[in-house]
Amino acid sequence: MISAAPFSTLSSLIGIPVSDNQGVIIGNVTDILVDHTDGRIAYIQLLLDRHSGDTNRNITVPWSSFRATIDAPTVLELRVGRPTLVALLASE
Question: Cys-Cys crosslink for 48: which of 5, 27, 44, 61, Cβ 3.0 to 4.6 Å?
Answer without folding.
Answer: 27
